[in-house]
């Protein structure tokens, strides 16, 4: 980096503004300025028109650069014989003094900006430690003869008049030892000034007592002993050990100790599998005997499928200096960083449960690997959520376990930035790099991070630069790909060994005390190992706290009446149609509200939007909160919802759903950022912690869910089976073939149905507003929670036939899993064909049947595809054993529900007929793409499949 780096950045700190203040005073009254500075400013005024310069304004940095340039040109013009670098004979002049001060300040600012690049951060010494030119005094015109000359720096670094030698010594100690700080990119002056004070002012620095240092040693000893013990007992067994990063354990302890002093009551943690077992034992206090039992093949609890031990979560209570803190380590699959937003969603829900408006009682701590942090896009999505109204959690502490390697991939092949932390600069987060072999420095950084998060409610990054003593796992041979790195690691002392030498040198403890600490830890592990051999895993009650009123699903809990009294529906509906006096509503919304009011008053023509609003409103008046997020979800992608009105003159908002009655729950509709995976993870995490909120994520189009496929595969559909964690999350995925091209046609129904098993979720494709009303209410009134996937319509939002009567959502009505033609035009034995379908295609079939006057074909609508309603289908199809059965869908044969429903319908038909019989398929042929991009071709295809479904003898 060249000297040009200084011109717009080096004076951005508050501590560097004293030159501008001095110059401002000079302009007001030059007698108030020291004579040496007055001479300097006199020279500047001869060459630069500065009288009207706003030296306190945002352009100050650029202006100051002009002043510096003007100074050098002034000197050379007035005294051509003077060199750029002052000679020893000139050091007493005012110009030399002022120039020395200015250049010294430039060096100080350079260290603040770039000192971390020179810091001693790599335990293995693999990084190039060449002096960076912006940190070299010669870059600024100093020579070897200038190091001991007095320089005025106006109390910067706690110094007033000092020498270059002392300045560099102080800067090296602050910025270039075991801690490297990146903070000058921060635009918030208060944050930047606070960090500056923490690291530069001696009174702010953390002084560790002998007791503190013994504590650190004990925690490192526990971490190292844990890994060594398992390595001996279970040779070659995967444990993804923390070896090389043991400083993480005292760092986590320090974060919780300091945060609890500042009011923290609960923390939710997310982390990958490396070091997870160590964290569980030595930080979460999970009994070592339970971990041993898992190595023997016993799960902590017995249930459907489970997961490997280094993916499991855990909850516990810990006490720090008499303050109780509840800790939750979230379960996490191998897709490492997806857990980030899940954790933050849980934190947000827990903050609201505790009415933690300041977001100080509950905090998220996320641990990352260096390769994953920079490589996974969901990390950037999570960071982006940090300051948004609907997603902020008051700041997260991010800890990167920087192994300086991926699985087998070197950083130079894994990222374009020098450090993996550069992605965090997108939210202007401070970044603290620290040498993992210096546990005291790691603890100091952890304390600063905790205090920064508390003070500013903002994210902070701690990058623990360490190494991975073994391969990616304990069965891997790392020398295949990194022979030089692992040659160094083999010769490198452990963090504990290095720290012991330092403590003995300091006289903190002797060898006997060191041996005693180690012996105590080994004794504990041996004893716990013996207990673990006969340890009986406990039966976990995972329905605790907010979940205590819920149960696991059973056949007896499926039925649920969700109708509402008609008078109550009309009362609530009237409130939904109210608009405050003086509110400047968009003219088109007057028609929208009038149509809604008419439908509710007459009880006829209730459309999707009105049905949804009534469902939400009745849940709110019953005490259930509602959280709806997604891209443009307040208005609705198809301009159908309008749950938030915007004043056309002031842009103030009015939310009818929050103004139904005095005592009601709250409705929150959030227009999310253009993110799917990150936001969907967040909402899933929220639903994990809060069962009494209808938590909904709406895709702008159904295919947008593709970007969140990892969330569905590894969390939403499998968490209950793997980790015994329920979720009532609702996914709203607009789906339907209207000639809008490949992507905006399909929500990939087949993918969700393929994931169905072990009663893990519900998949519905409603064809009536009434059924939509009921399925939303059913989600909250059952005494269990399952994820709900709703394939919502697009054209049906305003289809003249896709409306319901108020009687269909009132009284004892409920969600209907199968809808059947209730009025047949012929006798049962005259029915020639039963067409089973799902979703929008029903209306195309119905209209064509009416148009053709067909009487002997009946329709059955499969409103719920999973759990598959076999008994209900059996009951209806048994009436027509003679009829052929058709499955009709809009999607290609290799997509949509066909490959899921065919065998299940076949089983029903075999039971009816006592012999093999299967349904016939009608729909689009097998295709690589979900749909055509031609509207004309779409119309022709749709007409052809409808015709085929209604035409006899289709074989």
From TrEMBL:
- Provide any one GO MF term from the record: thiamine pyrophosphate binding
Which EC number applies? 1.2.4.2
Its organism's taxonomic lineage begins at: Bacteria, Pseudomonadati, Pseudomonadota, Alphaproteobacteria, Rhodospirillales
The record's note on quaternary structure and interaction partners says: Homodimer. Part of the 2-oxoglutarate dehydrogenase (OGDH) complex composed of E1 (2-oxoglutarate dehydrogenase), E2 (dihydrolipoamide succinyltransferase) and E3 (dihydrolipoamide dehydrogenase); the complex contains multiple copies of the three enzymatic components (E1, E2 and E3).
Q: Which Pfam families match?
A: 2-oxogl_dehyd_N (PF16078), E1_dh (PF00676), OxoGdeHyase_C (PF16870), Transket_pyr (PF02779)
Q: What does this protein do?
A: E1 component of the 2-oxoglutarate dehydrogenase (OGDH) complex which catalyzes the decarboxylation of 2-oxoglutarate, the first step in the conversion of 2-oxoglutarate to succinyl-CoA and CO(2).
Please give the cofactor(s) recorded in the UniProt entry for this protein: thiamine diphosphate
Concerning CDD domains, the annotation shows:
TPP_E1_OGDC_like
Q: One biological-process term from Gene Ontology? A: tricarboxylic acid cycle
Q: Which Gene3D superfamilies match?
A: 3.40.50.12470, 3.40.50.970, Multifunctional 2-oxoglutarate metabolism enzyme, C-terminal domain, TPP helical domain
Family classification: Belongs to the alpha-ketoglutarate dehydrogenase family.
Q: What is this protein called?
A: 2-oxoglutarate dehydrogenase E1 component
In this chain the Transketolase-like pyrimidine-binding domain maps to 606-799
Q: Name one GO cellular component term.
A: cytosol
**What keywords were assigned to this record?**
Glycolysis, Oxidoreductase, Thiamine pyrophosphate
Cytoplasm listed as a keyword: no
């Amino acid at each position: 980096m060249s000297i040009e780096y200084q011109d717009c950045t080096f004076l951005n700190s508050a501590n560097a503004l004293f030159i501008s203040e001095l110059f401002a005073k000079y302009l007001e009254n030059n007698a108030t300025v020291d004579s040496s500075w007055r001479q300097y400013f006199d020279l500047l005024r001869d060459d630069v028109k500065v009288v009207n310069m706003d030296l306190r304004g945002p352009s100050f940095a650029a202006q100051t650069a002009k002043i510096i340039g003007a100074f050098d040109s002034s000197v050379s013009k007035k005294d051509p014989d003077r060199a750029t670098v002052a000679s020893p004979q000139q050091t007493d002049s005012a110009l030399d003094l002022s120039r020395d001060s200015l250049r010294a300040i430039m060096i100080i600012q350079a260290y603040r900006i770039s000192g971390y690049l020179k810091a001693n951060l790599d335990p293995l010494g693999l990084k190039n430690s060449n002096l960076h030119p912006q940190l070299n005094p010669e870059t600024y015109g100093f020579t070897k003869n200038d190091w001991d000359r007095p320089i005025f720096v106006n109390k910067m670094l706690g110094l007033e008049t000092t020498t270059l030698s002392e300045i560099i010594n102080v800067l090296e100690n602050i910025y270039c030892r075991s801690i490297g700080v990146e903070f000058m990119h921060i635009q918030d002056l208060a944050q930047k000034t606070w960090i500056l004070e923490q690291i530069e002012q001696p009174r702010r620095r953390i002084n560790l007592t002998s007791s503190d240092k013994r504590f650190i040693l004990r925690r490192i000893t526990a971490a190292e002993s844990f890994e060594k013990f398992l390595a001996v007992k279970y040779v070659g067994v995967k444990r993804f050990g923390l070896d090389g990063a043991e400083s993480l354990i005292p760092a986590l302890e320090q974060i919780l100790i300091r945060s609890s002093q500042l009011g923290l009551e609960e923390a939710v943690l997310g982390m990958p599998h490396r070091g997870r077992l160590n964290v569980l034992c030595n930080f979460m206090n999970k009994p070592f005997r339970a971990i041993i039992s898992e190595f023997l093949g016993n799960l902590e609890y017995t249930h459907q499928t489970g997961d490997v031990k280094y993916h499991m979560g855990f909850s516990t209570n810990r006490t720090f200096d008499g303050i109780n803190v509840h800790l939750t380590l979230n379960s996490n699959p191998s897709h490492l960083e997806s857990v980030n937003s899940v954790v933050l969603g849980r934190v947000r829900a827990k903050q609201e449960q505790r009415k933690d408006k300041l977001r100080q009682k509950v905090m998220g701590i996320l641990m990352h690997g260096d390769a994953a942090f920079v490589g996974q896009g969901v990390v950037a999505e999570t960071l982006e959520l940090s300051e948004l109204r609907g997603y902020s959690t008051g700041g997260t502490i991010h800890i990167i376990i920087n192994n300086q390697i991926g699985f087998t991939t070197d950083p130079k092949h894994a990222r374009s930035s020098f450090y993996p932390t550069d992605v965090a600069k997108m939210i202007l987060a401070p970044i603290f790099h620290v040498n993992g072999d210096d546990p005291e420095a790691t603890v100091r950084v952890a304390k600063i991070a905790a205090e920064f998060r508390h003070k500013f409610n903002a994210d902070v990054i701690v990058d623990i630069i360490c190494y991975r003593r073994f391969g990616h796992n304990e069965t891997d041979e790392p020398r295949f790909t990194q022979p030089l790195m692992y040659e160094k690691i083999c010769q490198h002392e452990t963090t504990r060994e290095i720290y012991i030498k330092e403590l003995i040198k300091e006289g903190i403890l002797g060898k006997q005390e060191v041996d005693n600490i180690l012996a105590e830890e080994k004794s504990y592990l041996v004893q716990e190992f013996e207990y673990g051999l006969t340890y009986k895993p406990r039966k976990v009650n995972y329905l605790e706290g907010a979940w205590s009123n819920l149960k696991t699903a059973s056949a007896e809990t499926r039925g649920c009446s969700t109708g509402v009294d008609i008078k109550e529906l009309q009362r609530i509906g009237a409130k939904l149609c109210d608009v405050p006096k003086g509110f400047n509503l968009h003219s088109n919304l007057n028609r929208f509200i009038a149509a809604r009011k008419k439908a509710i008053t007459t009880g006829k023509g209730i459309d999707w939007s009105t049905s949804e609003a009534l469902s939400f409103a009745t849940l709110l008046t019953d005490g259930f909160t509602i959280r709806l997020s997604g891209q443009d979800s307040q208005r609705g992608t198809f301009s159908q919802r309008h749950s938030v009105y915007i004043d056309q003159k002031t842009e103030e908002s009015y939310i009818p759903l929050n103004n139904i009655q005095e005592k009601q729950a709250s409705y929150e509709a959030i227009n999310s950022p253009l993110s799917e995976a990150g936001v969907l993870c967040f909402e899933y995490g929220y639903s994990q912690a809060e069962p009494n909120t209808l938590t909904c994520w709406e895709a702008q189009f159904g295919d947008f869910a593709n970007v969140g496929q990892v969330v569905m595969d590894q969390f939403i559909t499998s968490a209950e089976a793997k980790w015994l964690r329920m979720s009532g999350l609702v996914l709203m995925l607009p789906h339907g073939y209207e000639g809008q091209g490949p992507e905006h046609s399909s929500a990939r129904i087949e993918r969700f149905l393929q994931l169905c098993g072990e009663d893990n979720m519900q998949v519905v494709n409603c064809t009536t507003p009434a059924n939509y009303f009921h399925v939303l209410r059913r989600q909250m009134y059952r005494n269990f929670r399952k994820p709900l996937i709703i394939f919502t319509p697009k054209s049906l939002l305003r289809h003249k036939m896709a409306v319901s009567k108020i009687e269909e959502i009132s009284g004892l009505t409920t969600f209907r899993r199968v809808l059947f033609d209730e009025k047949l035009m012929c006798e049962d034995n005259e029915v020639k064909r039963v067409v089973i379908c799902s979703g929008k295609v029903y209306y195309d079939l119905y209209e064509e049947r009416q148009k053709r006057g067909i009487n002997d074909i009946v329709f059955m609508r499969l409103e719920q595809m999973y759990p598959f309603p076999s008994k209900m289908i059996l009951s209806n199809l048994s009436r027509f054993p003679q009829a052929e059965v058709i499955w009709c869908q809009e999607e290609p044969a290799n997509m949509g529900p066909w490959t899921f429903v065919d065998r299940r319908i076949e089983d029903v038909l075999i039971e009816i007929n006592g012999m093999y019989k299967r349904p016939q398929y009608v729909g689009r042929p097998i295709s690589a793409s979900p749909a055509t991009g031609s509207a004309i071709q779409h119309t022709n295809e749709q007409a052809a499949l409808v015709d085929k479904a209604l035409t006899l003898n289709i074989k």
